[in-house]
Write a structure and sequence with these properties.
Helix content is 45%, strand content 15%. By secondary structure, the chain is of the alpha+beta class. The longest helix has 41 residues.
C-alpha cells in the first residue's frame, strides 16, 4: 500500500506524498472531497471553525494574530508543530520533552491514577510524583497514537455496497470492507496499526496508519483536590480554579519500536516536542489549539435534534444521575469502594451535566428553530431544481428519527440494563465474545477480532477489579424498576417473565448478585476460554440472565446497523444538497481528525448584565476554599500562596499566579488535553473544559457564549515545581 520508498501517488491531484507527510495528503483529499475551495475560505474568516490542516493556507493566519506560517505549523518536508501532538486514549496530549514526556488532563489520566490507587496508597487523594524513570507507574490499557500516513479509500469501501442491499446489509458490507482494508494495511506495514474512519457520513472513508505506543506510564498527578477542584459543582462552569493536568510518559522497546510494558523499555523520542512558555498569556492574546476534536452534529437535521431533546438527553440525565447517586452512597463510608467507583462516577457525571447544559442550550439558543429555517432553504433549493431526484430526503431522515423516538425509551433502558450493573456488562462481553470468536475473524464484531481482543480482555479484567456486589444489587433493582414503567417491555419475553415474577425486585437482584462469580478474576479468565454452550452449563445467574436476553441484544444491534445504513445513505445525499445550497457557507463537521482552531483570551456574557472576565487566580482559589468537599485545597498550596512564593510565575498585572483562563476557540469532546498555544506556537495552557453555555457546541457554536477553558501553564509549573517540589519535571519541561 505504501511502497518501500514511502511514496504514494494521488492520481486525482497529480502529486506524490511521502508516508510521513499525511497532513499534506489530507489537505488535498479534503479539498477534493468537499469541493469547498474559495467559498469555504471566505466562510472560514468567521470565528467558528475546527479547521482541517488542509485549510491552513486559506484562513489567513497572520490576520488572525498567529505569527507562524502554515509551513511552520505543518510542513510535509520536515518536522513541524503538528509532530508534537498525540492522542492519549480518547484525549489529546502534547510531547513536552525529547524523552516522551506528555502533558494532558488530570481527567484523562484519571483512570490510570484510580487503577494505581488503594486505601493504603491513595494516589487520587494524595497525588503522585515519580522521582525518576524507575518510579513511573504503568497505565493499564492506555495507548498513545501518532499518525504516520493517510489514504483515501472511499471508492474501495463504497464498492462493497449496492442499491439492492438492505440497509442492514449495507452497514455490514461497509464494516467488512473496512476491516479487510485495515488487515491488509497492517500486513503490508508490519508494526503499524490501521484504521478506516468515516470522514463524511455515507460518502467518504479514509485509512489512517498509526504508530501505537502501548507502554504508557504515569509520571505526575496532583491530588484530586487540585486536579478536580470544585468537583461536579464547578464542572462546565466559570470561573474555574482547577489544575486539570497530569504528566505521562510514552515508552518503546530498546529497538525504538512499540512494545508492551517491560521494565527494559526506554522513553520514546518524539520527532518534535512543544516549547513551554512560562510567561503564559494575557487578556486579548491570540491563542490556537491543535487536537483531535470528537464529532460535532452541526449538519444534522432538526428531526435529529428533536430526538435528542425529547428522548436521549433526558434519559441520560435521569439514568446517569441515579447511578452516580447510588455509587456515591456505596462509597460514602468505605474508601476502597469509593476508589472502585471513582472513574465511572467521573465519566458519568461529566456526560450528565453536559447533557443538562445541552437541553438548556437548545431552548435558549433556539437551535431547533434555526435548523428548521436552514432546512427550509434546502427545500427551496430542491424545489427549484428541474431534475430533482431527492425530494423527500429530509422527510425520510425524519422518519428514522421518528421510529427512534417511539422505540427510544425502551431501547435506551434495555441497553442500560446491560451496562449499569457491572456484572451484567461483564457477562455480556464474555458471552458475546464466545459467540463472535467462533466466527471467522473478519466476520466478528470489531472488539473480538484478533487484532483487538487483547485490549478487550484487558479492559474486561480491569472492570472485574472495580466490581462491587452491593452496588450492583442496587443497579439491577433500579433498572428493573425503571423498565417496569416503560411501555413495550411486555413484548420482550425474558424481561416480561422477570418483571412478572412473584419475587420482589430487591430479592431478585440480590439473588443474582450474591450468587454470581463474575467478580472473581480467575472465574472470568476461565470463562474466556469457553464456548457459548459451556458458559450456559456453568449456571452462573448473571451469565444466565444475559444468555436469556442475548437474542434481544442481537436484534438491537442489527436494528442499529439498519438505521446506520439508511441514515448513511440519506445523509450522503443531504450533504450534496447542503454543499450546493450553501456554496459559500458549508463547513463539514468535526470527525476526530487533527484540527486547528483559533480564538482569543476574552471575557463573555452568559446572560444579560453579567460579564465574566477571562483569568482566574490563586486569590479566587483561596476565596472559594472552604475545606469542605468539593472545595478542599491542600495545605502546601495555601501556604505557598499566602507566603507569595510564586517562583517568578505571577501574572505581571494581577500580581499572583493565574490558575485558568477563557478563550473563544471552537472545541468539543476530544479536545481535552489539547495544547493551548500562543501566537508563536508555544505551550501556554492545557485545554480541559467548556463553559456551561458552550455545552451546546456539538450542535451549534456562538461567538457570544462559546468559550473553552484551559489550565494556565504558570499554574502547572507552580504546582509541580514550587508546591510539590518536582523541579526535575519542570526542568525537563522547560529544557533546563
Amino acid at each position: 500500500m505504501w511502497p518501500g520508498n514511502g511514496l504514494m501517488y494521488l492520481h486525482s491531484r497529480n502529486r506524490w506524498f511521502h508516508k510521513d507527510s499525511w497532513p499534506a495528503l489530507l489537505a488535498y483529499l479534503l479539498v477534493a472531497i468537499c469541493s469547498l475551495n474559495a467559498g469555504l475560505a471566505s466562510k472560514l474568516m468567521a470565528d467558528e471553525g475546527m479547521f482541517p490542516i488542509s485549510e491552513l493556507e486559506n484562513i489567513q493566519l497572520a490576520k488572525r494574530g498567529i505569527r507562524l506560517t502554515a509551513d511552520q505549523i505543518f510542513n510535509p518536508q520536515t518536522t513541524s508543530l503538528v509532530d508534537g501532538i498525540c492522542r492519549v486514549n480518547g484525549c489529546t496530549g502534547s510531547f513536552v520533552s525529547p524523552k516522551g514526556l506528555i502533558i494532558t488532563n488530570h481527567h484523562c489520566a484519571f483512570d490510570a491514577i484510580q487503577k494505581a490507587s488503594s486505601p493504603e496508597r491513595d494516589l487520587l487523594t494524595g497525588g503522585f510524583i515519580a522521582k525518576g524513570l524507575a518510579d513511573e507507574v504503568p497505565a493499564p490499557n492506555y495507548t498513545v497514537r501518532i499518525t504516520e500516513a493517510y489514504q483515501d479509500v472511499s471508492e474501495s469501501v463504497l464498492a462493497a455496497v449496492s442499491t439492492e442491499m438492505s440497509f442492514t446489509d449495507r452497514t455490514k458490507a461497509i464494516e467488512r470492507r473496512r476491516k479487510e482494508l485495515e488487515l491488509q494495511a497492517e500486513q503490508e506495514n508490519p508494526g503499524f496499526r490501521a484504521e478506516v474512519a468515516e470522514m463524511f457520513v455515507g460518502k467518504t472513508y479514509v485509512l489512517f496508519l498509526y504508530t501505537y505506543l502501548k507502554d504508557v506510564r504515569l509520571v505526575f498527578a496532583p491530588p484530586v483536590s487540585i486536579g478536580a477542584f470544585g468537583g461536579e459543582l464547578d464542572n462546565w462552569e466559570w470561573p474555574r480554579h482547577t489544575g486539570d493536568y497530569s504528566l505521562m510518559r510514552a515508552y518503546v522497546g530498546r529497538d525504538g519500536k512499540p512494545a508492551e510494558y517491560s521494565p527494559e523499555n526506554v522513553p520514546y523520542q518524539p520527532k518534535r516536542h512543544l516549547k513551554v512558555q512560562a510567561a503564559g498569556i494575557d487578556e486579548g492574546d491570540t491563542v490556537f489549539l491543535l487536537g483531535y476534536p470528537g464529532r460535532t452534529v452541526r449538519n444534522r437535521t432538526a428531526s435529529f435534534l428533536q430526538y435528542e431533546k425529547d428522548v436521549r438527553l433526558p434519559a441520560i440525565v435521569e439514568l446517569y444521575g441515579w447511578q452516580i447517586a447510588e455509587m456515591e452512597k456505596a462509597g460514602a463510608n468505605d474508601r476502597s469502594v469509593a476508589i472502585k467507583h471513582a472513574t465511572r462516577i467521573k465519566s458519568l457525571a461529566n456526560v450528565e451535566k453536559r447533557s443538562r447544559g445541552q437541553l438548556i442550550g437548545m431552548q435558549r439558543a433556539q437551535i431547533i428553530e434555526q435548523r428548521l429555517n436552514r432546512e427550509s432553504k434546502w427545500r427551496a433549493y430542491l424545489d427549484a431544481q428541474p431534475d430533482n431526484k431527492s425530494p423527500n430526503v429530509l422527510d425520510e431522515i425524519a422518519g428514522v428519527y421518528g421510529e427512534m423516538t417511539k422505540r427510544g425509551p425502551l431501547e435506551i433502558h434495555l441497553r442500560e440494563l446491560r451496562t449499569a450493573p457491572r456484572a451484567l456488562a461483564i457477562a455480556f462481553t464474555l458471552y458475546d465474545a464466545a459467540v463472535e470468536r467462533a466466527k471467522p475473524d473478519i466476520e466478528r464484531e470489531t472488539p473480538y477480532m484478533d487484532r483487538n481482543f487483547n485490549q478487550t480482555t484487558q479492559q474486561l479484567r480491569l472492570d472485574v477489579g472495580d466490581w462491587h456486589r452491593e452496588t450492583d444489587v442496587r443497579m439491577l433493582q433500579g433498572m428493573l424498576e425503571r423498565l417496569r414503567k416503560i411501555p413495550g417491555y411486555q413484548d420482550i419475553e425474558p424481561v416480561d417473565r422477570i418483571l412478572k415474577s412473584s419475587e420482589s425486585l430487591d430479592k431478585l437482584a440480590k439473588g443474582v448478585m450474591e450468587s454470581t462469580k463474575l467478580g472473581q478474576i480467575e472465574f472470568v479468565d476461565e470463562c474466556l476460554k469457553k464456548s457459548p454452550q459451556e458458559l450456559k452449563a456453568l449456571g452462573d445467574p448473571a451469565l444466565q440472565w444475559i444468555i436469556d436476553l442475548y437474542p434481544t441484544y442481537v436484534k438491537l444491534r442489527d436494528k442499529d446497523k439498519e438505521r446506520e445504513g439508511k441514515l448513511g445513505a440519506l445523509y450522503g445525499t443531504l450533504m450534496d444538497i447542503q454543499k450546493a445550497a450553501e456554496a459559500s457557507g458549508f463547513i463539514p463537521d468535526a470527525n476526530a481528525t487533527l484540527r486547528l482552531t483559533v480564538g482569543r483570551v476574552e471575557a463573555y456574557s452568559p446572560v444579560d448584565a453579567i460579564l465574566k472576565t477571562p483569568i482566574s487566580t490563586l486569590n479566587g482559589l483561596l476565596e472559594k476554599t472552604t475545606q469542605v468537599e468539593p472545595y478542599i485545597t491542600p495545605l502546601p498550596v495555601i501556604q505557598a500562596a499566602q507566603e507569595k512564593r510564586f517562583s517568578n510565575l505571577a501574572h505581571p498585572k494581577l500580581g499572583t499566579v493565574p490558575v485558568a483562563f477563557l478563550y473563544s476557540t471552537d472545541t468539543t469532546g476530544g479536545n481535552s488535553g489539547s495544547p493551548v498555544l500562543n501566537a508563536n506556537g508555544e505551550l501556554v495552557g492545557v485545554n480541559f473544559d467548556r463553559t456551561f453555555e458552550a455545552t451546546i457546541n456539538d450542535f451549534a457554536w456562538n461567538q457570544r457564549y462559546s468559550r473553552s477553558i484551559g489550565v494556565d501553564i504558570r499554574y502547572v509549573l507552580w504546582i509541580t515545581g514550587e508546591v510539590f517540589g518536582a523541579k526535575h519535571l519542570t526542568a525537563e519541561m522547560l529544557g533546563k
